[in-house]
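User: I'm putting together a teaching handout on how multi-component assemblies are represented. Below are the sequence lines for each component of a complex, exactly as they appear in our records. Could you produce the 3D structure of the whole assembly as structure tokens, so the students can see both representations side by side? Please keep the chain order the same as the input.
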Amino acid sequence: MIEVQNLYKKFGDQTVLDGVSMLISPGKTHVILGRSGCGKSVLLKHLVGLLQPDSGKVLIDGEDISKLPERRLGPIRKKIGILFQSGALFDSMSVAENIAFPLRESGVRDAELIRGKVAEALEMVDLSGEEEKMPENLSGGMRKRVGLARTIVSRPSCILYDEPTTGLDPIATDSINHLIRRLQKRLQATSVVVTHDMKTAFHTADRIGFMHEGRLYFEGTPKELHESTDPILKNFIEGHSGESA
Amino acid sequence: MNFALFNALGNGTLGLMRYLGELAFLVRDTAESIWVAPLRWRLLLRQIAEVGFRSQLVVIVTGAFTGAVFSAQTYFQFHRLGMDSAVGAVVAVSMFRELGPVLTALMLSGRVGASIAAEIGTMKVTEQIEALRALGVHPIDYLIVPRVLALIISGPLLAAECIGLGIGAGYIVATKVLGISEAYYMTNMLKFTTERDLKMAMIKGTCFAILIGFIACAEGLKTSQGAVGVGRAPTQAVVIASLVILISNFFLSFALNIFFPAGTY
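Assistant: Of course. Below is the structure of the complete assembly, with chains in the same order as your input.
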């Protein structure tokens, strides 16, 4: 279980997180929605200790990770996988080496076992047979899939997705949305998806949080969000900027 | 007017302090990593190949041609005074004490320092360093320690290679081209060159390698602003490392001369 308590974060003079609290239940998919720059990705990076808050707590299975030194975060990070917006593949390594990286770092040395797990992870993201390709030869959608394969190969109990469909065409977006849902069912992992894509949100979410001006403005089910009459939520859902002409 | 001057001076001092602080933290984290984390031998060997083996051409050319031209210039001056046989001693002592370590370090800062800063900088802006951290791998263990150690191992060896080639090339030019007696050349060179000169060269080579390693890694790690930042990181690394090498060489020469005095044998 992940619990965020009263999180504050400033970069220079800009307050990015302004007292965010939320509870992420195990085995469910939580979507965090919001406009670009509202602090969604910053919140996500706090969940895995990539950023430290100015104040507040992030509890992972009851342990506060917000002030832990980098070296003590290693074991916690092995329980939580994150898919970065760009995929963040290691560009000096092939697809297979990228996916095998977390296994090798965990001390797995059996080449046959690693090969099998890499093939299985690639099969889960529908990229079987692409082991030898280099990241530079992959499309944006394929990079995200390989990034996801690297994230799930060590079977984390929680998967964080940072804008998983940004920059993808509608078909690739739909494919990633199905993949997130399918992986959640197959791995029974808790998922947190940060996005501003409404289709992704409604397709994948069990619960949705909406961030506005550094705060968690709304939290509820997709149905509750859809039926909301709040003007800020309605404008976001319908894509109205409020400008005329 | 005065206020603007003080403001500029203050900002400059603060910037320098901030930079030195960042560098000090990097040194502390690297020392901690060497102490507590297991060494990644494969990465270290790969980096030694990258730093040491792939720098051969620049070190060979730099050492050989510097020794050759230094020998010729020394001869042109000394010949008028009838001191031809002293050329070998001047070339050897200069190569050991100054030219070998400094020129090797300048070449390494250009070839290796720039490459380290660009590589780490690219990894920084493409979220690869965050990906490492997210996968439970400390970037200092994985990226910095192998590069700094590879430089510490390769730096003095490359300096020794540069010195050897410089002295060899100087010998060939002096004895085969300029006609200095081989016996006098060798006798004077061996008489005036001592073990202290070699020690000084190795200490300087190691110090410069450490400086290049940390400056290049620090520039890579603080890269931001995408392609512009990645373009700026290697330039900054080379400029800062070169200046620091030249300035620190002055102070190192004086300090080391206390322990390894020149001219006494």
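A couple of points students might notice: The two ends of chain B are 57 Å apart (CA to CA). The interface with chain A takes residues 36, 122-123, 126-128, 130-131, 133-138 of chain B (CB under 8 Å).
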